[in-house]
Amino acid sequence: MRLLFIVSLLLMISASALTYPSPINPPYDPLLIEKFEPEQKDLSVRDEKRSREIPIRVYLPKEKTLSAVVLFSHGLGGSREGSAFLGNHWAARGYVAVFLQHPGSDDSVWKDKPPRERLAAMRAAADLGNFLLRVDDVRAVLDQLDRWNKAAGNPLSGRLDMKRIGMSGHSFGAVTTQAVSGQRFVRGAEVTDSRIKAAVIMSPSGPRRAGNGEQAFGSVKIPWMLLTGTRDTAPIGDATIESRLSVFPALPAGSKYELVLYNAEHSAFTERALPGDSQPRNPNHHRSILAVTTAFWDAYLRDDPNARKWLDGDGPRKVLDKEDRWQRK
Fold first, then answer.
1. Mean model confidence pLDDT for the chain
2. pTM
3. Using an 8 Å Cβ cutoff, are 278 and 265 in contact?
4. β-bridge mates for residue 324, sequence order
């Protein structure tokens, strides 16, 4: 009788283990983070070739071992302090998040201008010259991170996995990200940086000349994630909803994703409203952005099969609003 009782008890325990997820291996959740305040370091990268200082803010994870690196490029008129919700979450998930500030197209453009002159100043800064400066800023920062990583005694020494680099950005930062991660241009030098292994592009822009989408994006080799909104327009750059949505169809199949947030305006990817906003901010938009971008980094910078399964399965739909559009190819 005693033996029968023990056998029955073991069977019950086995059945329970099959029914409930093990606390040791919980289901994949890109929003799960420890209660941890990432350390922030404000540094400056000196590009001697251009006599240019590039301010950066580095969000450091708890782990002091090698961590994948994610760069972020701000939009026109922004700074390294913007979109901190991304830096804090990504660092809490174990990434070194490096937020660039681009002199000439940062907040210095409008800060000291009277309100009536700010829009004109911003439009003037959204030019080819600043675009090229931004592209070179990415290269210069990556070069410096590599040097710091190898320098004994540096606070970043031995903490940066320079073989696992992601690039991201919003608006003008999205244009910057597209350029350094695979977009081709009809004229001009190749600016793709082969060190970048995956890219997250918030508020993308199609080429200015209609019909050039496949020429611009048809040869993108690395994973891309595009994020935009159904109201994602901006007064500078003349980017329309149609332009933003034209990028995904032009990309080649294979590890390409697009999220279109319902009723999201251009400011959905920042922490503050922008002039001209007309819709109340949806708090689930930031939650959705954090979930899908984190899963993307986990899948393509860490080669996490559970993240890839979540991303390619029904994981995103569990965090998105029903009106949001999600697709992959």
1. 90
2. 0.90
3. yes
4. none
What's the DSSP call for residue 157?
T
Domain assignment present for 21 = no
End-to-end CA distance of the chain: 59
Percentage of the chain beyond pLDDT 90 is 78
Contacts of 291 (CB under 8 A, 6+ apart): 30, 31, 315, 316, 319
The count of domains in the chain is: 1
Q: Which pLDDT belongs to residue 18?
A: 34
Q: For residues 168 and 181, is the Cβ–Cβ distance under 8 A?
A: no
Domain enclosing residue 278, as ranges: 37-328
CA distance 321 to 135: 35
What is the CATH number for 77?
3.40.50.1820
59-78: buried (b, 16+ CB within 10 Å) or exposed (e) per residue? bbbeeeeebbbbbbbbbbbb
Alpha-carbon Rg for the chain, nearest whole angstrom, is: 22
According to DSSP, the residues that pair with 225 across neighbouring strands are 200, 257
Asked whether residue 192 is domain-assigned, the answer is yes
Residue 6: inside a domain:
no
Which phi and psi angles does 121 have, rounded to 5°? -65, -40
| Residue 255 covered by a domain | yes
Mean pLDDT of 41-63: 97
- 22: confidence class by pLDDT, cuts 50, 70, 90: very low
Does residue 303 register a pLDDT over 70?
yes
Tell me if 85 sits within 8 A of 286, measured CB to CB. Answer: yes
In the chain, the percentage of residues whose pLDDT exceeds 70 is: 91
- Alpha-carbon distance values, 152 to 46, 87, 145, 208 (Å): 19, 26, 13, 46
User: Which of the four pLDDT bands, split at 50, 70 and 90, describes residue 2?
Assistant: very low
